[in-house]
Specification:
The complex is a heterodimer of chains A (796) and B (392).
Chain A (H helix, E strand, L loop, with lengths): L8 E5 L3 H12 L3 E6 L13 H4 L1 H12 L14 E5 L12 E4 L5 H14 L5 E4 L15 H5 L1 E6 L8 E6 L5 H13 L4 E4 L8 H19 L3 H7 L12 H7 L1 H14 L13 H8 L12 E5 L5 E7 L4 E4 L6 H7 L4 H9 L4 H19 L8 H12 L5 H7 L2 H10 L6 H8 L6 E4 L2 E6 L4 E4 L9 H8 E4 L3 E5 L4 E6 L8 H17 L2 E4 L12 H9 L3 H19 L5 E10 L1 H7 L3 E11 L13 H12 L7 H12 L7 H6 L9 E3 L5 H14 L10 E3 L2 H16 L5 H14 L8 E3 L1 H16 L2 H13 L6
Parallel strand pairs in A: 1-2, 1-4, 2-3, 4-5, 5-6, 7-8, 17-18, 18-19, 19-20, 20-21
Antiparallel strand pairs in A: 6-7, 9-10, 10-11, 12-13, 13-14, 15-16, 16-17, 22-23
Chain B lengths: L3 E9 L2 E2 L10 H14 L11 E5 L11 H10 L6 E4 L5 H14 L5 E9 L14 H7 L6 H11 L4 H20 L7 E2 L1 E8 L5 E8 L11 H5 L20 E11 H7 L5 E10 L8 H13 L8 E4 L4 H11 L12 H4 L6 H16 L3 E8 L3 E9 L1
Parallel strand pairs in B: 1-6, 3-4, 3-5, 11-12
Antiparallel strand pairs in B: 1-9, 2-9, 5-9, 7-8, 10-13, 12-13
Helix pairs in contact in B: 1-2, 3-12, 5-10
Classes of the chains: A alpha/beta (796), B alpha/beta (392).
């Protein structure tokens, strides 16, 4: 019989690095957490009576975790959702929870002991899972009751659990289908994870491939005589991998963890055709002996130190001499050529054809990865897409090995691999022979993958509620221009996406917004503004503003600013609901777009802020006006008002960027009680679509434009003195003082004698005036130039 | 002109604002308790013969609003007959009220006045709930509105007061205060205040906790100059003024009872002191800390005395930087300045301080069998005040 399963309370056993962070992530999504750990070993008789002393380990671990960066928790206020305890006094409390997760040390006998104790208190039917990264799930079953076995499986989170999206589910032969289905759904909808169902093989999927990849690179380092920093420059963003590339990642994860996984595979995978790759090379053994484990021991492949002038310098290990030397810039002709290409798939093609050492490296490294993953089916999984998903979600790769193989043309690559003596699994040859030239195909907007057992293209399961623009763009595009696409996402809702450099907002995006609203008003029920790039938008296209400002073409700037203001205004001023779905960086102009929406559906990882002061201006696309409006909307009868306007002023004045959607709500950049958070990126556009549909179906009327209360001189006095004091104290520069005063003038509505209700247009005019005036300041131009060149703000 | 006398003076202990002993205590309750004690100490006095209560307060709003001067008269004297008023000259308010009372009695407007001040900085943010500077003024004279810390930094810069000197001065203030507390020097002047706290315990059951506060909370045991040196500047980038070498924000009340010569004779009371001169002076707001440099000479001249005649000085330690600037500029003898510690250790409950320092001065001079003493302080927006007392 099917029953509802609700996860209201979770018990986490073990407060180490993973346990504490998993606890924080459940707190993030609103679940009550009980975090337990052992009592310290050498407590005196007196201390054993003291609860705080008994909980010293778990409390310190949680405290350290809460203070760590990047923050594992969306908001400090969520800490109260976590209660701590010890295994002696508080284990009985697990009878009250809906899910128990074991996160103790990676030793089978200790885990078994913990499970035995858990069984004494666990209520029948409660989910019990382990976060083990390598121990066989099956091997933990014996001596456990039938009910335990039925509800037990592996739930493998990745570090850090807030930010890395992968959750591997590893059932045993006894795990019930209900639990598997529940966890696959819960992990997606509630925890916001990319879910991968794995077989119970050593290191499961992500670590098996990821570590194999790293181990093979360890050997390539020796073979091709490349340095550590050279390998990192070759295996970072240039091939769609994280900035920490290979060796920096090892330092972050910890050499001991890596060695542990490698040893596990070596010992337990006797039939792995490149088993010897998992043997530790000499230099790794030496590093381990010296305990150079990475960040946790303050040195690994990289070491931070100070030169003789006291300046910070990064040193890199030379694996031949085992000495550290200052990091050198790696230069390869192939890389320089590929850097020009923005598109990753095209870039890979350039790299693999390189005629220098880099090209040789890429061919060797890619081909060995391709060969390796081909042999892992069906050993670790029957479904090749899971390997790609695991590596993207767990190791931060932009695309996985099979996707890369597709990008480099499977047939062409196969012949090249044969030439270089790489042995590929038979099923790949069979697939190609049968006329299927790629691992993935897009059929009518659905992404299919080649299923090795049925030898057919199969739909990827569990993606019914995901709207993936890449898959449906071709089929459902109803309008486009050079930067934007308007895509029908079904049920009368259309989605506007833009794909510009860093998704910045220029004329083509403004046109896209205007056109989309016009089209949606005529023929559709509602508009979602969302994209699936790395970031929602980093802001307006300032290169354009810079050009105009340098030429002193103020009429042009005025025109551009008016266009931006009209466009954000149009977002609010439309006859159909417009919902903006934000994710990643939502800065400056991107934030302004979100501020004007009927509703914002924000991905939990939304970094929203009005950062215009960083480039020497104030928000000129309606953002300053909106902050005045939000303050005005918040005033109540008898309100003191000044702290309210000050808070919104400082959002702009200090260029605050929220580090989570939750923080965005706390800053009032997202509207409390109206805007909502989607935990997982996969569900974002669908959630936004549902809200839009709901707004439309309930009967949507274009909002009336209300007047805004501005404080005039009352507010101005406060801000003038504040800016003056900050400057006198050396906290802000002269130019920042100037910008602060112009911001104050705008947000207070000018030097009116008393608080006044003004129209939106009145404030937009003040905004534009301030914006134009600042564009005439040399220091503002310097700031814009610096941002364009270095990608960082300048404080002049 | 008639003579006015101070016949008694008391103060509450001073608590640290925010999390200190008086965080549940309203300023009007605190002041009323001190006034009750003050009046009870002169049993010969018929309460209804008191002509006025003049209360100093630097932030007369919220808990300190509603004309706190009148309120504490109603609350502390248990009669409707005695009026009350509230006076604000920021940090000198508690001394200003004594001067006003003195003047009124001298010219015959009154026979008997309670004067002093109260300030609870716990419930009200510094400067008040709604700070609205004048925009037109701010355009040209924003430094008239500068926070006190900024002015302390300006004084440190102009008078070359080093960070180390400020920290040494701060440390000494604590040492002197701890010594005075240990030796019980404040026992006579402090009114024990009973604090009643109603709170919910762990099981959400209502509990009542009562405790008596009779010791100044500010002075810090186990401090050191090294520890003070580690503190970060709090008002400017790369500054020298820290939380450790600035006065503490505090909660406290202090009041004295003034009477005309006629009333003293009629009731047969032995007076304890006389205010013989009082001065206020204006200085540049950005250097507000040096106010005493202007005010002290005026007070001396009016009293017909020289600096050498003054045997004990209470100089409010708003900041170590400005205290040292004043001491050096006026060439004060440091051995007779703040002998029992100053505001850095004991706290600076703004509107109360003038009254508090007066009470402390009178008691210490009496102990030493001396005659002339001076209370002086700098005042926000660039002022100074000084009062010279003759102890009888």
């Amino acid at each position: 019989m099917n029953r509802n399963r609700h996860i209201n309370k979770v018990a986490i056993i073990g407060s180490g690095i993973m346990g504490s962070r998993i606890a924080c992530h459940f707190a993030n999504i609103g679940v009550e957490v009980l975090l337990l750990d052992i009592i310290p070993f050498n407590l005196s008789k007196e201390e054993k009576k003291n609860k705080n002393k008994k909980n010293a380990i778990v409390n310190k671990a949680l405290q350290n975790t809460l203070e760590s960066k990047p923050s594992p928790i969306y908001s400090k206020s969520f800490t109260s959702r976590i209660s701590t305890g010890n295994l002696e006094d508080d284990l009985c409390k697990i009878s009250d929870v809906d899910w128990i997760i074991e996160v103790v040390v990676e030793k089978i006998d200790i885990k078994k002991k913990v499970f035995k104790e858990i069984e004494k208190h666990r209520k029948k039917g409660t989910i019990i899972s382990t976060n083990t990264s390598g121990i066989s799930i099956e091997s933990m079953l014996n001596e456990r009751s039938e009910d335990f076995q039925k509800h037990f499986c592996g739930t493998h989170f990745f570090n850090p659990p807030r930010y890395l999206k992968l959750l591997e589910i590893i059932p045993s032969s006894k795990t019930s289908a209900e639990i598997i289905d529940f966890l696959m759904d819960y992990g997606n909808r509630f925890l916001g994870k990319d879910m991968v169902l794995c077989k119970d093989t050593p290191a499961f999927i992500a670590n098996r491939i990821g570590v194999a990849n790293i181990m093979s690179l360890f050997h390539i380092v020796e073979d091709l005589n490349l340095s550590i920093e050279e390998i990192d420059s070759l295996t970072g963003p240039i091939i769609g991998r994280p900035k920490s590339a290979t060796f920096r990642t090892c330092d972050l994860v910890g050499l001991d963890t890596l060695i542990h996984v490698a040893n596990g595979v070596y010992q337990n995978c006797p039939n792995d055709e490149v088993k010897d790759n998992f043997k530790l090379p000499e230099f790794i053994k030496k590093m381990n002996k010296n305990q150079w484990l990475g960040d946790k021991s303050k040195q690994g492949f990289y070491k931070k130190s100070k030169d003789k002038n006291g300046k910070r310098v990064i040193e890199v290990l030379n694996i031949n001499t085992m000495q550290y030397a200052p990091k050198k810039r790696a230069k390869f002709a192939t890389i320089a050529a590929a850097k020009q290409e923005d598109n990753l798939l095209k870039r890979l093609k350039i790299l693999v054809k390189g005629k220098d050492k880099a090209g040789e490296f890429y061919r060797k490294s890619f081909y060995s990865t391709f060969a390796y993953v081909s042999h892992r089916i069906p050993e670790i999984t029957d479904d090749l897409y899971k390997i790609d998903r695991a590596l993207c979600a767990g190791f931060g790769w932009e695309i996985g090995p099979f996707q890369m193989w597709d990008a480099l043309d499977v047939v062409d690559t196969l012949s090249k691999m044969e030439e270089e003596d790489f042995k590929v699994a038979n099923w790949v040859y069979n697939m190609v022979k049968s006329g299927k030239k790629s691992f993935y195909t897009n059929k009518n907007g659905t992404l299919n993958y080649y299923n090795v057992s049925t030898k057919e293209q199969k739909k990827i399961a569990g993606m019914e509620n995901f709207i993936v623009l890449d898959n449906i763009r071709k089929k459902n595009k109803i309008w486009s221009n050079s930067g934007c696409n308007l895509i029908d996402i079904g049920d009368g809702i259309v989605n506007l996406e833009w794909r510009t450099k860093m998704n910045s907002i220029g004329g083509e995006v403004l046109e896209g917004i205007q056109q989309s609203i016009k089209i949606a008003e005529k023929n559709h029920k509602g508009l979602v503004i969302a994209n699936q790039g790395v970031n929602f938008s980093v802001g307006a296209n300032i290169a354009m503003i810079f050009m105009m400002a340098i030429e002193q073409e103020y009429d042009e700037i005025d025109f551009a600013v008016r266009a931006f203001q009209r466009t954000t205004g149009r977002i609010r001023n439309s006859s159909i609901p417009v919902v903006v779905a934000t994710h990643g960086m939502t800065l400056g102009g991107g934030c302004e777009i979100a501020l004007h929406a009927d509703h914002v559906q924000a991905c939990a990882e939304t970094y929203i802020g009005l950062v215009e002061m960083g480039v020497g201006v104030i928000p000129g696309g309606g953002g300053t006006k909106e902050m005045a409006k939000r303050a005005s909307d918040a005033y109540f009868s008898g309100d003191i008002q000044l702290p309210t306007i000050k808070k919104r002023y400082l959002n702009i004045g200090m260029a605050k960027v929220a580090t989570s959607a939750q923080e965005g709500i706390e800053l009032d950049l997202l509207l409390k009680n109206r805007d909502k958070v989607t935990i997982g990126f996969n569900n974002l556009i669908n959630d936004a679509k549902e809200v839009t549909l709901n707004l439309a179906n309930k009967g949507y009327t274009k909002p009336t434009i209300e007047k805004i209360k501005v404080l005039g001189k009352q507010g101005l006095g406060m801000f003038m003195v504040g800016a003056h004091s900050m400057h006198a104290a050396g906290y802000i520069t002269q130019h920042e003082k100037l910008m602060s005063e112009k911001l104050a003038y705008t947000i207070c509505g000018g030097d009116l004698s008393s608080p006044t209700l003004v129209s939106e247009q009145y404030l937009l005019d003040l905004e534009r005036e301030a914006f134009l005036s600042l564009c005439g300041e040399r220091k503002t131009l310097e700031r814009i130039e610096h941002m364009l060149k270095k990608g960082k703000p300048l404080r002049n | 002109m008639r003579t006015a006398y101070i016949v008694a003076g008391y103060r509450s202990a001073v608590g640290k604002s925010g999390k200190g002993v008086f965080k549940f205590t309203r300023p009007d309750d605190l002041a009323a308790d001190v006034i009750k004690h003050l009046v009870a100490s002169i049993p010969e006095l018929d309460k209804e013969k008191i002509d006025d209560v003049i209360c100093g307060n630097a932030t007369p709003e919220a808990e300190q609003g509603l004309n706190i001067g009148r309120m504490i008269s109603l609350m502390g004297l248990d009669t409707i007959k005695v009026p009350g008023m509230t006076v604000n000259r920021y940090c000198s308010s508690g001394l200003e009220t004594i001067a006003i009372a003195n003047a009124k009695i001298q010219n015959g407007m009154a026979e008997c006045i309670i004067a002093g001040g109260v300030e609870c900085m716990s419930p009200i943010p510094f400067g008040g709930w709604r700070i609205v500077p004048n925009y037109d003024v701010a355009k040209n004279n924003a430094d008239w509105y500068w926070n006190m810390g900024l002015t302390a930094e300006e004084v440190a810069k102009r008078w070359n007061i080093s960070r180390l000197d400020q920290d040494k001065f701060a440390f000494k203030s604590h040492q002197k205060a701890l010594n005075a507390i240990e030796k019980g020097y404040f026992k006579r002047e402090i009114v024990p205040i009973t604090v009643k706290e109603i709170y919910l315990d762990q099981n959400e059951k209502k509990q009542i906790k009562k405790y008596v506060v009779d010791t100044d909370e500010g002075p810090r045991k186990g401090g050191s100059i090294e520890a003070l040196q580690k503190l970060k500047p709090v008002f400017t980038e790369g500054g020298s003024v820290t939380a450790g070498n600035a006065s503490q924000t505090s909660d406290g009340a202090a009041f004295v009872l003034l009477m005309s010569e006629d009333m003293v004779n009629k009731l047969n009371i032995t007076p304890i002191a006389k205010l013989i001169s009082y001065s206020v002076a204006g200085v540049e707001p950005k250097y507000m800390g040096i106010g005493p440099i202007e005010a002290v000479p005026i007070a001396l001249k009016k009293a017909g005395l020289k600096l050498d005649d003054i045997e004990l000085i209470e100089l409010n330690e708003a900041f170590a930087s400005q205290s040292l600037a004043v001491i050096r500029e006026l060439k004060l003898n440091q051995d007779i300045v703040n002998v029992n510690g100053g505001a850095i250790a004991l706290g600076h409950p703004l509107g109360c301080t003038g009254g508090k320092l007066t009470v402390q001065l009178i008691n210490e001079i009496k102990k030493r069998n001396q005659k002339y003493g001076m209370v002086s302080m700098c005042v926000g927006a660039g002022q100074g005040a000084a009062g010279i007392f003759e102890i009888l």
